[in-house]
Amino acid sequence: MCSLGSVSGFGEVAWQARGGKAGRVIAQEPAAGTRVPIRTSVDLVVSNGQQPELVPDVVGHQEMRAIGELASANLNATRQGRMHSPRRAGTAAALFGTLQYSVAASASACVAWLHDGTPWPMAAVIAVCGVLAWCARRFVVPAGSAPQVSIVEPLD
């Protein structure tokens, strides 16, 4: 659900993937027929037109097959290292998110810098990112380590 916040002092408006036509109100709080004081805010939930996805069962599958099945269900998967200290899990997650955001911003800047009106700069940046990811997996991650895969969020 994506909250848009208060709209002109009327209440909260939130978007949800619960079906229905995009832009249609699918819920309200307080409910219809409820008696409230004058100028009470009414919160709305608006459909974004997307249907929620069912998560496929990928337990016991090979890593790449599981990621493929999740991708075909319009879901993302990300690797997460095992934390021996649960107290550091939040810090690790924040660092991982910052790293993802920084790499994406750098790749975007490279595409903009190389832009020549063709798709080749984007293809080149994707290829370089693929090679760097392969190198990181090959040379940085210890051999034989079993990465964990977790579902993150539906694709927009």
Relevant terms:
3 helices; disordered N terminus; about 160 residues; two-stranded antiparallel ribbon; 2 domains; 6 strands; 4-stranded mixed β-sheet; alpha+beta
Q: In a few lines, what is going on in this structure?
A:
The protein has 156 residues and is an alpha+beta fold.
Summarize the SSE layout with pairings.
Elements (H helix, E strand, L loop, with lengths): L1 E5 L5 E5 L8 E5 L13 E5 L15 H10 L2 E6 L8 H26 L5 H21 L7 E7 L2
Parallel strand pairs: 2-4
Antiparallel strand pairs: 1-2, 3-4, 5-6
Helix pairs in contact: 2-3
Specify the biggest β-sheet. 4 strands, mixed
Strand fraction:
15-25%
How do the strands line up in the largest sheet?
1-2-4-3
Which overall shape is indicated by the principal axes computed on the Cα atoms? elongated
> What is the rounded Rg?
22 Å
| Cα end-to-end separation | 12 Å
Number of helical segments?
Answer: 3
Q: In the residues, how many domains can be counted? A: 2
Report the average pLDDT across residues: 76
Number of strands: 6
Structural commentary:
By secondary structure, this protein is α+β, with helices and mostly antiparallel strands. It has helices at 63-72, 89-114, 120-140, and strands at 2-6, 12-16, 25-29, 43-47, 75-80, 148-154. The longest helix has 26 residues, at 89-114. It starts with a strand and ends with a strand. A four-stranded mixed sheet has the order 1-2-4-3, with no helix packed on it. A two-stranded antiparallel sheet has the order 5-6. It is built from three helices and six strands; from the N terminus they run ββββαβααβ. Residues 1-9 have low confidence and may be disordered. The protein folds into two domains: 2-47, no CATH class; 63-154, no CATH class.
